[in-house]
Design goal:
By secondary structure, this protein is of the alpha+beta class. Helices cover 20% and strands 25% of the residues. It is globular and about 50 Å long.
Length: 170
């Protein structure tokens, strides 16, 4: 999993497991009615992780799928990570585990922004050489992630910001 502090790690790709044993399922909202997020916002977060995971399997940083569920800083972050991975001849295999928790919904009465905290587990989302061998012997790990999902003028939801901490940050 890439980290904002540029600490190398072995995270990489595969369809995210967004719930206990439920690949691609909609993530929980944290159970708080005060922080109930529109399901479309959480679906956009899950879809963004699925997009990144799938594209990282080939490190195809030009794949238009990347822009399907994110834009702005988040899109730039993941595109740059994939450019770096491609330049090093690496691809990713496996699947991150996600358990997002809604931390803020604003405004509460008609949300247009949802903030999510997650502890992305890249233990089984690792980087490999194109020939199939592991890129290194550094195990994947857990990374804190803070994400902002924003309603667009057309009513869709896109991830606009995502910060990911170093391995062991959660």
């Amino acid at each position: 999993m890439p980290s904002v502090d540029s600490t190398p790690s072995r995270a990489a790709s595969g369809a995210p497991n967004t719930g206990p044993g439920k690949p691609g399922s909609a993530p929980p909202s944290g159970g708080s009615t005060a922080l109930a997020a529109p399901p479309e916002a959480l679906a956009a977060y899950s879809a963004m992780l699925a997009d990144v995971t799938a594209v990282a399997e080939t490190a195809d940083y030009r794949n238009p799928r990347l822009a399907s569920h994110m834009k702005g800083q988040a899109l730039t972050f993941w595109t740059q990570n994939l450019i770096d991975q491609h330049a090093k001849g690496l691809v990713s295999h496996g699947s991150p585990v996600s358990n997002p928790q809604v931390t803020k919904v604003s405004p509460a009465d008609h949300p247009d922004r949802v903030e999510v905290s997650d502890c992305l587990d890249g233990t089984h989302w690792l980087k490999y050489k194109r020939d199939g061998g592991l890129a290194d012997d550094v195990p994947g790990g857990r990374h804190i992630s803070a994400t902002a999902i924003v309603r667009q003028p057309d009513g869709s939801w896109l991830v606009e910001q995502q910060l990911i901490g170093a391995v062991g940050s959660c």
